[in-house]
């Protein structure tokens, strides 16, 4: 005898199928937008870092030419499009700056373009006039308005910048692997509250004052420190004989960073 089994199961209706397809489409669109934004943000950060590094190379090249006494400063190493504007004590000459040899300073704004990303960098050079003294100082503690950083790999810092933690800059003996090509520019004040250690073949340029407090202040072989203002040190200092420090203001060791009134100990680098 054959028996028939009745089933109460139902299939997916057309409306349910269309609703599922619509929901899937919404999920895909939202996911695509988030992924596109993430990729765009990553590309922007990468372009900014690349531009900063190339400008860092360019400014260092110009600074070295100026220090060597050249009257025509040209960018040849950096892979950027650039223009010079707001030049003081110099004149533009094609892709170079012709320096007025009668003047002791040179300032300009470098407009740089790389991969559609454009930024302006203001800087100034001054002929070396080293002087170390124990003159009384007043009101020269670090400015209150600092931009706090925790990553030295930014290469160029446009505002008053402070690092609260210990900063270690090293090339591990290989210049080809050097962070920021071994060049770090602070266009205003720079403060290292946790100490600073700089190893071989790195250069730090500070356009105003530099403060090193905390653990220690260590400079390795062939390190170059260029400071346009004063250098204030609270840390124990260690430096190799061929480390080079160029301070155009005063070098002072202080005990209390909140009460900087005098150069308590005069320091010299040979």
Protein described:
With 270 residues, the chain is an alpha/beta fold. The longest helix is centred in the first third of the chain and has 54 residues, at 14-67. The radius of gyration is 28 Å and the shape is extended. The model is unreliable at 1-8, 129-139 and 172-176 (pLDDT under 50). The chain folds into two domains: 45-126; 147-266, no CATH class. The strands form five sheets. A seven-stranded mixed β-sheet has the order 7-9-12-15-18-21-22, with no helix packed on it. It has a five-stranded parallel β-sheet with strand order 8-11-14-17-20. It has one helix at 14-67, and strands spanning 72-74, 81-88, 90-93, 96-99, 105-114, 117-126, 147-149, 156-157, 161-163, 167-169, 183-186, 190-192, 196-198, 203-206, 210-212, 216-219, 224-227, 231-233, 236-239, 244-247, 251-253, 265-266.
